[in-house]
Q: What sequence folds into this?
């Protein structure tokens, strides 16, 4: 009898541990597999490409992490991103040609943020004050932002005619050339066009932006009252209210935060692809939810971390990249991600079952 | 009650002539109640007798239609349960109102988390202080919970009840109200809750418990207030009545 209890406890311990680290193990296993099986997977160039390509997904997923921990969901993120991208692209084009690049980018960012904040505020007020279920409120905003984005852009991508923008979006912090050596922020001067192909960039700007946002969001979530309250609201909203947490205000802030990250992702899209498209974030909704859930969040709320979401986003991106390198039909990616999501949820449920005595 | 007044001890809580109507129904009719330091008062009565309504007026959920409430001699009016809590009236509901995904220390401090500045930059929740203070209050209540950093979800019913009580006590409750504290618990856990109530009493914190369970009532109460159809029909020392007397008062056949 005694032995049995010990055994039960240890199996619970293992399950608990497994549920915490399986995503890491899965990611490591995948990286190991692709490194061995895929030619050119484990190179600085490819690793940076994976990170740069997941920046937009990851930035939106940060906001989605907060929302899902609070027990909600934000279905509107993809189209709010597109709407912000279109508005910011339009504003960037309207500025006089002589404007400095930083002013153009900041103006675009601000315009996109402003539009997104209205969307986030409406979401938040509907959910927190008018008790509309998050699924419905943000589904409404999904349609509204989609319509506005397409109306403003006439259904076409808005090309941005700003010199140097693409450089910013695809640029690196450091460059290295075998003969010209290292340089900071821009390629070594005086290189011939043909020589540029030997140039290697390190630390893409978009990856730096992603990492900075990630670190800030992680600290806020794990260390501040706001972060703690996000977990409390997701765990037991009624208890949070009775404990005196300003639940409505917190929820509005959470949906504003989600819209903010969506808008930033829209601007990152703009500078990376030098155009703003209403449907830029069309695929983002399910990918962000997938990243958050693979990262250990519960769709019932109360659990999840930014670092977990990072692992989830990495798994999705590494999978996409690795399959291309292996020359597997990219459609397999959908199937693979689907399977990973189901595994994530099964593991989470098994842990919950064991955790209860 | 009379003899206590004679000793000159001031009641912690005085409810005077409280009345609450819902439409034509008078849920609580002209009920007065005094609670003295370190006293455990059980509120007994059949369903619909008005126990919950009375308690909700004292804990700030309902505003009385008539009557006055005095806390430590000062008249108080409360617009919300939060105001009642801030005044020192802590209510522990049957569902305990804990966040099961969070640990005991966070639950004890929920909504009132201590913070410290990190690098002078931003205020971060001071988890070490929360743990230290939680240990202190649990020691004071003689509660032993291994690993306070486990989520509440993984704790037993008795441990959860203990966390809820610790939360109430930590914030220097002047009065603790417990709504059916043993309803969902097994027998050993019920005993633990009884012990906890005795510990509160020893620390001079008065407790009002609402209970259907006569065993509960006789295990912990000093005094029993019986309600029937909105009226207070009995206010007796627990040592002076039997189960049968109590039931008779509750159903009105005495």
A:
């Amino acid at each position: 009898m005694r032995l049995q209890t010990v055994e039960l406890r240890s199996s619970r311990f293992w399950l608990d541990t497994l549920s915490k680290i399986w995503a890491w193990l899965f990611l490591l296993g995948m990286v190991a597999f692709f490194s061995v099986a895929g030619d050119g997977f484990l190179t600085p160039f490819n690793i940076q490409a994976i990170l740069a390509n997941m920046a937009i997904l990851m930035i939106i997923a940060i906001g989605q992490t907060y929302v899902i921990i609070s027990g909600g969901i934000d279905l509107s993120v993809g189209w709010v991103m597109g709407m912000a991208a279109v508005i910011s692209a339009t504003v960037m084009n309207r500025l006089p040609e002589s404007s400095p690049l930083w002013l153009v980018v900041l103006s675009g960012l601000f315009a996109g943020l402003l539009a997104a904040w209205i969307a986030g505020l409406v979401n938040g007020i509907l959910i927190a004050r008018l008790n509309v279920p998050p699924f419905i409120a943000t589904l409404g905003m999904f349609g509204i932002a989609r319509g506005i984005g397409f109306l403003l852009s006439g259904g076409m991508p808005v090309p941005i005619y700003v010199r140097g923008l693409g450089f910013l979006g695809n640029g690196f912090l450091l460059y290295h050339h075998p003969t010209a050596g290292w340089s900071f922020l821009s390629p070594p001067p005086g290189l011939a066009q043909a020589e540029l192909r030997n140039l290697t960039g390190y630390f893409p700007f978009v990856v730096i932006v992603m990492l900075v946002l990630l670190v800030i969001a992680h600290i806020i979530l794990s260390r501040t009252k706001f972060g703690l309250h996000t977990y409390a609201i997701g765990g037991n909203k009624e208890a949070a209210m009775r404990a005196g947490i300003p639940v409505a205000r917190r929820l509005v802030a959470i949906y504003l935060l989600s819209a903010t990250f969506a808008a930033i992702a829209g601007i990152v899209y703009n500078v990376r692809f030098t155009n703003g498209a209403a449907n830029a974030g069309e695929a983002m909704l399910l990918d962000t939810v997938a990243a958050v859930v693979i990262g250990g969040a519960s769709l019932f709320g109360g659990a999840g971390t930014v670092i977990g979401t990072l692992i989830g986003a990495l798994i999705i991106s590494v999978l996409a990249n690795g399959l291309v390198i292996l020359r597997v039909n990219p459609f397999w990616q959908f199937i693979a991600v689907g399977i990973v999501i189901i595994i994530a949820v099964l593991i989470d449920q098994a842990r919950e079952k064991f955790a209860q005595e | 009650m009379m003899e206590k007044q004679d000793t000159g001890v001031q009641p912690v809580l005085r409810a005077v002539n409280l009345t609450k109507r819902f439409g034509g129904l008078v849920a609580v009719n002209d009920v007065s109640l005094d609670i003295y330091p370190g006293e455990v008062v059980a509120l007994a009565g059949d369903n619909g007798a008005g126990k919950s309504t009375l308690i909700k007026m004292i804990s700030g959920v309902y505003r009385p239609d008539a009557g006055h409430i005095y806390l430590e001699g000062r008249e108080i009016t409360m617009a919300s349960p939060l105001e009642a809590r801030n005044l020192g009236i802590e209510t522990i509901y049957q569902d305990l109102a804990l966040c099961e995904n969070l640990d005991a220390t966070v639950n004890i401090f929920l909504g009132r988390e201590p913070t410290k500045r990190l690098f002078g930059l931003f205020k971060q929740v001071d988890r070490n202080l929360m743990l230290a203070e939680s240990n202190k209050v649990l020691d004071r209540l003689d509660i032993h919970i291994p690993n306070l950093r486990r989520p509440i979800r993984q704790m037993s019913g008795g441990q959860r009840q203990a966390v809820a009580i610790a939360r109430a006590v930590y914030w220097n409750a002047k009065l603790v109200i417990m709504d059916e504290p043993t309803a969902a618990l097994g027998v050993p856990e019920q005993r633990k809750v009884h012990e906890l109530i005795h510990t509160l009493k020893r620390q001079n914190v008065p407790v009002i418990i609402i209970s259907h369970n006569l065993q509960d009532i006789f295990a912990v109460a000093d005094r029993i207030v019986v309600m029937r159809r909105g009226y207070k029909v009995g206010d007796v020392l627990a040592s002076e009545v039997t189960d049968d007397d109590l039931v008779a008062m509750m159903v009105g056949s005495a």
Residues 1-6 of chain A have pLDDT under 50 and may be disordered. The interface with chain B takes residues 219, 223-225, 227-228, 231-232, 234-236, 238-240, 242-245, 302-303, 355-357 of chain A (CB under 8 Å). Chain A has one domain: 25-350.
